[in-house]
Structures are given as structure tokens and as C-alpha cells.
Design brief:
about 475 residues; four-stranded antiparallel sheet; about 15% strand
Length: about 475
Amino acid sequence: MIQPNSEISQDLSKEISVRQKAFRRLSRRMKMEEEDDTKVLFGTRISEGHQNYVLMYNMLTGIRIAVGRVSAKPDRPLVEEDFWAAHKLAFDVIGDELTPGAKYDFKFKDYAPWVFRALRERFGIDPADYLISLTSKYILSELASAGKSGSFFYYSRDYRFIIKTIHHTEHKFMRKILKQYHDHVSSNPDTLLCRYYGLHRVKLPHGRKIHFVVMGNVLPPNKDIHATYDLKGSTQGRFLPEQELKKNPYAVLKDLNWQERKVKLLLGPKKRKLFVTQLLRDVKLLVRLNIMDYSLMIGIHDMLRGNKDNVRNSTLQTFQASNKAIPPDTKLAERRASMMKRRESKAMAYRKVIMEANPDRLNASELPDTPFEERRNCVFYSNDGGFQATDEKDRPSPSLYYMGIIDILTPYDLKKKSEHFFKSMAQDKNEISAVKPKTYGNRFMTFVATKALEHNEDIPHEYEIDT
């Protein structure tokens, strides 16, 4: 039966009304998403021309080309020359047969590429995953500003890798110890030492040379860290005041905070032996290499609290580094320069347009919800990316520890010897940070065994470096 025209008109009106409402809702949602896309969690947007933006763009471009090149070559055994090799690349806006066009002019140096390729393979890092993680979005955390050492920290988009700028002397020292480091981590797959994946240098035209390392992040992408500690075994200057904690409740705490809060690592006999044995091996290497001033970083995840506090959402922000080498309207700029008969090179025409290009937007990061595959290769990262606490009967307890020895590029050189001399005149020479490597190692292991661990009855002298 055919409906009267009036009924058809009513149905059509209803349908139009429903669709109009749906369209308005969609329009509002799209507008909100567009507004959210321009927001940052804190701080200011890093736009084109900002020093850190240019630095990061050059870093990731150099890594993409250098690492991609060595990864594409057939595997071969390492030779002695590989540990001192340095490959140079020059980038500009035009490009050549060796390097593609880049947004800025800069020079890039890749140190010991074959050795770091071997280290990445040893640590279970897939070359393609490595490049994908490092050449897209960057997460800037609170540590992405000049710290006490003057270094800058940047996190890869998935919170998997850290790029850290280092001093020229640290770069020289790393190259000096690279062979011993490589041999140690190769024979100690469960090492707690910081995992280095690359050593590089960038240089801007008429600018300074900036050395940096790529290393693994001790902290996980999929878990909130409810407390982070940096333990050296020293007491002088090793306390974070309460007023600082009020400003930032998730700031990194130190040795005296650990003792004041009566925090302990809850590790049963089996895990305790694994931990102390490996820590001792790693510290003995550092003593042999004349290294001091390192720390044991410990991130603690309370499994009962889980991720409900949204800690990561309050401590991370991002910026997007564009992969576009040249904006699309450079041909117009070339024609304009030619018509005006200006003595402009092709590169200069490109640069003018690039400088007028719109900056990329900062976006909130979407972090992975599972630990990365390579973390399962190490016993200390095998429990959901960390090392789960256990009781004295080796039964699981509701805490996850994320641990690693960091800052391992400081030798006991003339500078540190001078620091020891002057500080010991006013402070207890046994408690200051700058002490001889063997003294530092013994003090470090003593603190971990007696102050950090809940139980140490079964390791009365095992932690001592000099038996």
C-alpha cells in the first residue's frame, strides 16, 4: 500500500533532521580534535627555527641514512679497525648520490657503525624497528632540558630509546672503552649496564659539534613509574628536598631519600643472587676501566595501583619532526629568482621557502601497551618488561622493578682528582661522589647490599670488589 504524500514528507523531514544533528555532532568532534592536535601537555611548542627542533631533525636524518646504510650490508666479523672507524656524511637541501636532500645543511659523523650494528643485534634490536622508532615523533619529558651535566635528553616516539647529548670528552672516552664494553655485554647477556646502540656527531654550518649517543630506556612504555631513584652509594648532596617534590611529585629521588623513606628492594634468594652476581660483574668492569660517578637507576611500579594514576600522561610531551626534505613550492621560488635575475643559487632559493614553511604540531603521544620483545632477552626485564619482587620463599610480590646502571662515561681523570682534593677539605672524603674507582665501586656495592636490599644475610662478603 502506497503511503500518502504527507506521511512521506514527515518521514523525510525526520530523516533530514536526524542527519543534520549527526552532521553537527561530527563537526563539533572534528573541531575539538583539531584543537586537541595543537595542544601540548606543558611548555611551549617547538617551532621551525627553534634550536632543539633543528638539532633533532638533523640527528634523526643522519641516523636514518647512516644506520640504514650499514644495516643493508652483508654481515661480517668485526675487526680491530671497526672500533675506531668514523664515517662522515654531508647533507644539504639539494642532496647528491650519497645523501638525499635535507631541510637544513649539516654534517654528520657515525662512529664505529659496524660495532654498534653488532651491539644492536646482540641486544635483540631489529634494524627496521630501530629506524621506525627513531625517525618519527619525539617525546620531550622533563629531562629534555639542560641538566647538571649540560646534556639534553630526547625520547623516541615509543619511549623505547633515549638520545642524549654528551660532552666531547665523554665521546672520546666511549671510543676508548668501546672494545671492552662490547666484549663484556657479549659475554653477559643479562648485564645491567646502560645499553648503547649508537654514537654520532652533528655539526651545523659555522656551529659547534654536538656529540650524542642512542641508548635503551630503562623505564617501560607500558607501565606508570610511581617512584624513581638514582643511587650512587654517596650521601653528600644526595637528597632531593620536599619543596622540589611538591613542584614535581615524580622527580628522581636520591640516596638519602631512599633511606629516609625506608625503601627496600624485595628480592627472594633466587632473584637476589642473580641481581647481586650480575651487578658485581658489571661494577668490576667499571673499576677496571677507571670509571666512577655511575648510578643504579631504579623505577618502581606498584602493581596494585597499576596505571590508574596516569603518571605518563602528566610527564610527557611531543613534537613532530617532518620527514619532508623540500616543500612542494620550491620550483616557483627558483623561477622567481631566475626571472628577477638575482645571483641566487638553487640551494638559497630552497632555503628561503623552507624558512617560511609552517612548523609541525606537537601531539600527545600514544605509547605501546606491551613491553618490547628485546627486553625478554634479559632476565632483569623478563617480567612484563621489568624484574618482579619476590618474598623469601621466591613467591611473586606486587612490585615491578626497572633497573639499570647509568652514566658510565665518567673516568677518574685529573678533573675528578681535583674535585676530590678540594671537596675532601670541607667534607668527609669517604662520602663525596668523586673518589677513586675501587673506593667508589666498593661503596656502591655496599650501599646496594646493605641499604637497598631488604635481606642480605646470604651475601655477607660477596658484594666486595676487593676480597
